[in-house]
Amino acid sequence: MYSGNEGRAILSEAILEVKSLRTVFKDKKSEKTIVDGIDFEIGPNEVVALVGESGCGKSMTSLSIMQLLPRMGVIAEGEVRFRGHNLVGMKKREMTRIRGRKIAMIFQEPMTSLNPVLTIGLQVTEAITRHLGVSHKEAAEIADDWLRRVGFPEPARIRKEYPHRLSGGMRQRVMLAMAMACKPELLIADEPTTALDVTIQAQVLDLIRGLIKETDMSVLFITHDLGVVAEMANRVIVMYAGQIVENTDVITLFTNPQHPYTKGLLGSTPRMNGTMDRLNPIPGTVPSAGSFPFGCRFADRCLVAQAGCRSQMPELRSVGKDHQVRCLLV
Ligand SMILES: Nc1ncnc2c1ncn2[C@@H]1O[C@H](COP(=O)(O)OP(=O)(O)OP(=O)(O)O)[C@@H](O)[C@H]1O
């Protein structure tokens, strides 16, 4: 009998370790580095936010973790260890067992994962029977339980619907039910609320926050929105042009940001503290993969860059307890 939120043993070691990960886009003529040697860990129950503007490499990082890169994408170097097992190069069958069951992912647009011609009930129960190996009857019970928990008081009605009949917020809640029903140890949420309007966005964020509290799962939360980071994360990793430029806990990020890019992101984010400061957007755009400038990749947009910044690539260095920054000037 399914008993809802059964406890899982909490381990002290990292759930996910990404080590020197380099992901490239390759065709016959060229090779472009998209994710360039990134290292980070996610601990038990930790919510890590991966932030940066569009095109920084956040999604390609998450797809590298899930081994779901598009056809031209290849992991050229590095390891992605999930509970100690390297997922890079893992057999497809083994990876399929981990994906969905141990690591679940929700996307910005749930329609990319939902099949438009199958009812919600069929899709949710199919995922549960496939990953948990339970009977159809048991899967239906689990599905109903989770549909209720994500805010559908009458799950039987939702089960009969087709995805296109639901609003964006409802579809995202269905995706959450589907992801959570298999009790993943790691949830990767890639801009899960970006496509929703603000009130629905707040409801879905509340829901995800509640689920994080209730369960033992760790979360990698991908967003370009620092407001969302402040609400959701324990730790923040700031990415720029395929590299990590700052990695620290959420309090330090907001009170003592060090990298000029992080400061720029904060300066371009509205605050609700009553002050009427002008927003200062960062000038320019993220360089695209394949045309990263020499030296510091942010130098062309950086207000404090000096000549030396363009002649050598800064290393990601420790600048305090649990705080790393990639900037020559820090
Ligand atoms: N299918 C593709 N073919 C070639 N280049 C790609 C492809 N998808 C992404 N890229 C490039 O990879 C780099 C990183 O893209 P990625 O989607 O990971 O960024 P992101 O930070 O997640 O941005 P967004 O929030 O817009 O998804 C960008 O330079 C982008 O142009």
UniProtKB/TrEMBL annotation:
Residues 16-266 form the ABC transporter domain. Gene3D superfamilies: P-loop containing nucleotide triphosphate hydrolases. The keyword Mitochondrion does not apply. It is found in: Cell membrane. Keywords: ATP-binding, Cell membrane, Membrane, Nucleotide-binding, Transport. GO terms for cellular component: plasma membrane. One of its GO terms (molecular function) is ATP binding. It comes from the Bacteria. InterPro entries: AAA+_ATPase, ABC_Ni/Peptide_Import, ABC_transporter-like_ATP-bd, ABC_transporter-like_CS, Oligopep_ABC_C, P-loop_NTPase. It is a peripheral membrane protein. GO terms for biological process: peptide transport. It holds the Pfam family oligo_HPY. Belongs to the ABC transporter superfamily. This is ATP-binding cassette domain-containing protein. It comes from Paenibacillus silvestris.
